[in-house]
Amino acid sequence: MTSLMETTFGEYIRLLRNEHELTLTQLAAKLNLDSANLSKIENGKRDFDEKRLPKLAKIFNLNLTELRNEYLTDQIGKQIYETNCTKQLLQVAEEKAEYRRLKNIKTA
Amino acid sequence: MTSLMETTFGEYIRLLRNEHELTLTQLAAKLNLDSANLSKIENGKRDFDEKRLPKLAKIFNLNLTELRNEYLTDQIGKQIYETNCTKQLLQVAEEKAEYRRLKNIKTA
DNA sequence: ATAAGACTTGTCATTTTTTGACAAATTTAT
DNA sequence: ATAAATTTGTCAAAAAATGACAAGTCTTAT
What we know:
Two copies of one chain form a homodimer.
Chain A: H1 9-19, H2 24-31, H3 35-42, H4 53-60, H5 64-82, H6 87-107
Chain A binds a DNA duplex through helix 3.
């Protein structure tokens, strides 16, 4: 796996956009959304809608799976940040995830 | 800190309820919710509303902070599970959380 | 067998949250 | 100063979460 970004997902989009010298308006059009909202996304004031990941990957010719990982880690990182979840608690959360895995494979 | 549960939050509530020999109806009443919905919560089909944590703590005479941690780790664990987030990706998510911390302390 | 209590499931209206869209700033580059 | 780019505020629409109730199953006592 390619090493993932140490940025927010919004910053990552901005990075890509700048690399490709697109304006907000131009990229927003390609993504089928409003430039004002894309601005908010890049500035972390709104979330990028997961449904648009395939489109985003196509526009910048990125591997969708890796992009999804970028997105996923951003989302979870955000939650960790917002809830002030410590490493110790995160460890517990991981164990609980594992518990769900065991349980649900049996159950389903 | 007391060691946290390796159960879902719903299962934990059920555990507490059974220990105290309360019916769904009885506990639901104390929590100001419908017994049918409490059943769903215990069975993981709905989320417990965070707003009720203080009430829940009071009913069972629990430390609110610890209960919150129980809740928090359940929530994040659930997200880890649902998104199939691997340990490796979780590590990245943690770094991103750290990045947000640094950034937002500066920014705010 | 059946009646009662405990629990579960399905559905739907209400509430809350998220999203899309537009107008009006503000900033940046020329 | 102008024009383009970006940001911010607001609000209606869409989507998701919640509350409530009805109807179902399952168990247990009689």
